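User: Round two. Same drill as before: sequence, then structure, for each protein.

Assistant: Same drill it is. First protein:
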Amino acid sequence: MSQTSDQMELREDDIRKHYIPAAEMLMQLDHTPRIAKARLSLQTPEKSPDVVATRRRFRSTTPGLLSRTTAPAGGVRLLDRIAETDDDDPLTSPAQAAVAHALRRALSIALTVADAYADQTPLTELKRINLEGRLPDARAAEFTEYLAAEALVALYTFANAASYLLAAHSTEASVEVGAVDEVLTDNAPLALHGAIWELDQKLGEFAKDEPTLIATMLAYAEQLMDKVALRASTAGRLESFNTASWRVEADDFTINGFSPARKAKGSSLTMTFKKPNEVVGNHIAKYQAMKLAKMVMAYDFDRKLNPFAELGGFIFTFMGDGKPGTGKTTLIQMMAGLINEYCQTAGYPFRYQNLSTDNIDSYQGKSGQNAKAFIRNVLDPGVIGFGTIDDIDQLAGKRGDRQSSAGQLEITAVLMESFAGANTVVRGNCTFGMFSNYPENVDDALRQRAGARFLVDGPQTREDYIDILYLLMGKNHDIPVGAHDVFSAQEIKKAVAASFESHARPHEDGLLKVFDQVHAQVGDLDTIAKLGTYLKGIQEADERFTGRAIKNITDAVKVRAMDFELPDEWMEEPDLFLFKDYDTKKGMISELRQPITVDMVIQEINRYADSEFRYADKSDEVAIDAMVRDFGRQEIAKKRYLESKT
């Protein structure tokens, strides 16, 4: 993507001037841990008392470095540690060389960014007057705060750059490195020394071969970023780093505060795509999926924001539920196919990912990490993302349900925090769809984090069944169609209008009773006060109808205000819309907006509340049926037992 105007370039000359100091850190440094505890000796034992250890070592080709003294006993030799991952080969392998080069590059970038941060703030001047012994006592605290901020900047940039540069070398291997402890904030060089010391410990403990070497490196970088970002959230003097953006052109690497950078690569999809006319029935779900596929394409890669997310009406999370065989998988294939086609036309990277039962792991904490990786991959601001969680009732455990495994509960916690947590940021570059045949088995709090509801009810009318039979029969027959206009019932706007109008009154018996009571009490629901009275009546009937439900309803109403499809030609010819600047796209969308009406609000209240009542009623019925079956089995067992005694 094009470089934004407020993005500063890190000059290659400035980065390369740190190569020698960075290489020296990797070759040798002496660090005494302050926070972390050593888990292994830093010194390699001799293989025999009478034989000199033959552990090979990286040898620097930089003039002058070979003649310098080696690290003292007990010092960190990270390059030697990397070389130990394959003692059978006397030559440096490509993977080992890639790690060494990535670490040197990451350290150099980190030191360059730390210098840039110091120049942007009073830190450079404070360092100078401190060296001259002229630092006044009144500014000592300020100096300490800036040094701590610089240390956090250097640490995060080091981990961020190392993770980014090694991403292309990752394999299927995974390693659990545990928490990162040695996070020092005295100053940038000491902070990096502590990071190298702990990385050396992690490599010695977990890196047994080349695949685990890369996996350990990436896992450590991720843990370090998480720890530093958490520390930075409460630290001061970081405004200039959080608001600035630097770019390393040679690596296509962009630094945006404490946000991880990843290579903007899309996934190659091999799934079977479906065209909208191949989805029979499911009118509202199909219509909203088609709209959402175009909405997400309005994302602006320079501003890192979607006008729909700013104006309101962007669907970040949605839940599709329906009986088995009603078309949930077909809907996923249709939506993924549309976004993939639009992205290919525009040249945007598209990433589709599904969270499946394969991500549930018996190892404690691993299921949660798999879910976090899924969320991070889809949220990547450098791509258009679509994440699905099919059969979510099997993946995410219901809290309080003794049948839920620890891994399922970990996934539930991650999804809840990611979809509506304190740190959730909706940029509008991606959307998440949760699908289930049994939504009543999904945790209530997680289900309520679905901002929109897609009822996937499949074909309903006589015309729908004729259309689906015609579609699935294919062309290899001579059976006449008869008195039927094929697919005329699937005219989306006509079908959607009828579907929305049907929600002028509730569908579920429990909600209909509340609606009639409130209507008899206050009359037509034509004011905010009357609508609020209706909402309170729903809450009294179902205590799970909370403030989050109201937010989801108002978001759905805003979506209805955006009840238009972006013209197909805007997707087919990117210059008409997709390649416009952010403000122009926002203006074009604003012109298509329509006012919110009372009918829209009533329909969306009924649509959302109907789904909640449907889930609750079905959940209760399922539980009652199970108990009835249990009681029946007990009676039969008791009867057989008594008969056997006579």
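Second protein:
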Amino acid sequence: MLLLPLLSLSALWGFVLNLTVGDGQALLRAGRLYQTLGVTSTDLGLALQAERADSALSPAKRARSLGAQRERTDAALRAFTAAAAETDDAQVRQTLRDTTQELDRLDTIRASVDTGLETRLTNLNAYNGLMDSLFRLYEQLTSVPDLPIFQQASAMQAMSNAREVISRESALIGGALSEGELTEAETAAFSEYVAARKFLHARALSTLDAELRGPYDRFFAGPAFAAFTLAEARVAVTGEPPRRSEHWTRPVADVTAQLDRLGATSAKILAERSDAVSTTVMVRIAVAGGVGLLAVIASIVISVRFGRRLSSELAGLRSAALDLAEVRLPHLVTRLRGGEQVNVRKEAPPLKVSGAAEILDVAKAFGSVQRTAIEAAVGQANLRRGISQVFLNLARRKQGLLHRQLTLLDGMQRRTHEPDALDDLFRLDHLTTRMRRHAEGLIILSGSAPGRVWRQPVPALDVVRAATAEVEDYTRISVEPMPTAAVDGSAAADLVHLVAELLENATIYSPPNTTVQVRGDAVSNGYVIEIEDRGLGLAPEEYDRLNALLVDPPEFDLADSDRLGLFVVAKLAARHGVSVTVRASPFGGTTAIVLIPRGLLVEQPALPPADAPRRERKPLALVGGTTTTTTHKGLPRRVRQANLAPQLKAPEQEPRPERSPDEVRDLFSAFQRGTQRGREEEAQEGDL
């Protein structure tokens, strides 16, 4: 915001300074060119005019003076050539090159004069060409930055051109006087000279100001110029040279002398004016350069101080905004996710900043944004809390209905003695148990606990068997022998649920003709349960994403309902400090590793399997305070049902001996009695 005005001011100062310095450079250039090319070219022009006049004379008359004049011309030419070689001005370089090339013809012109092969007019025109090139160079040297000075200098240049025309007339008539006649071509050329001289004088007089024009007006009205114009008119009218040389030479000498004197006086006046212009340019340079520089420096200082203050105010506003965005709002969202009630007015105080009115307005705008964001976050938290409560209420109601359904199924199993009917009732009982697990999943996702706990430790093997019993395709699960270990009863139900979700995921995403291997082992950090399937597996980045979700479960997203089981596993693992990791299996599938921490393990041997002989019943204290006796049937019903499940597996999973219908009926009657007893105990243990 501050840099752009400073750059604009600096650019404007540089532009003005460049203009004024350019004028100064133009004056310096004009003075430098006048001291080098101007002086030497003027001397060369005078020498060429004199040599031209001598060259127009007859051979007898020019023999006395032409040689000495040519030496003076050569000296002037050498001085001019040396000055031209030292000049590096780009504006006059091309004109200077053309003039130098034209002057190289001087030897050829002299040879033509000496041999007499060309006419007098031709030789004079050749010298005139040399003078024309010099006058073109003069026009380049009169370029000055001040327009009035340039106009007066141009008018004086026209006067100089008229003086050159008079010199050409004098050379032409001087040659005619020595020969005694004028040719028709020379008469025509003389008439052209007269017309050009009149045009140049009129042009110069129209441009000169009053101070410079006054002396010329008086001169042109004087007797000397009148005598010259009279002699000029006689020659133009008669086409013959004057009868006596003094009738031409004296008027021409008087006119040229006075013109040279007026030219010198006018040049002095122009020089004084140029000095005044130079002083003005230097003053402008001083103002534009000095005062302008001081203004730029003052603007920079003021802008820097203002910028620092503004930067400090913006930095304070930025810090307050970052604290709001990166500290306060995330902390508030974390508290809301934890279920804490938040006071919007207390948690959204106005930002404390100081500065200009604009900064305060922005701070107020941030305060409004902060208040709106907190209100939106509180509203979202209340919405999530309401949805969780709906989940919880529905799950609790569903859990009660499922418990009643299990009770009805138990009564039907007691009244049924047909093996096929008992098998169907057992499958229906199994599906109802899975429905109860899904209801518990909703309770877990809502942030509550399912409610099933045991005071006594539960063997790890029975945890795995109970989880297996809650999987639809349980006949494909193969549980290998596991070391003796027991888990705390308060975490047993959640561990059963966790392992059941992983087992069901393994059976769903693996071919139906494969088995799911379950292994357990005691390690230094606790107890490990490995679940390995023979599916297609996942990409490495997908494993990384799932492991990140299991390590740090995010807030449950209602839109992402395809992985409810993983959310449930992550929540249960985070609740008890259990580590769950998935990785690629050597067989191409997926291996899930559940590490139960040592804090959840207790020193107690595992209970005997289902087919072991009954031991003496011992009292078992339940959560509700009721005391009962138990054998293997005293375990949770799903554990007991899992122990019986191997006896009901399909022939391809575990071959069983052929039994008669009476033996099968007795077997399911025993299972029926065990199931009924287990449900009664679950009701006493607080299964709801």
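Strands lie at 458-459, 477-479, 486-487, 516-523, 526-532, 579-584, 590-597, 601-602, 618-621, 627-630.

User: Perfect.
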